[in-house]
Amino acid sequence: MKLEMIIGLFIFAVLVLYLTQFLIRQRIEKAKQQRIKALAEYKARREEVELKARRQL
């Protein structure tokens, strides 16, 4: 009886750890995608500004 409880708790702990790792990876991936998107938007805006500046010269 005690052994079964220990095994059950161990399995539960492992599942919780896997879930935690999965959620952390998801959050990191989401942050990475947002960073890539923000950088792309920044580059596009900078290019627009450069083009406008060249036209005014």
TrEMBL record:
The chain crosses the membrane at residues 6-24. The keyword Transmembrane applies. Keywords: Membrane, Transmembrane, Transmembrane helix. This is Uncharacterized protein. It comes from Enterobacter asburiae.
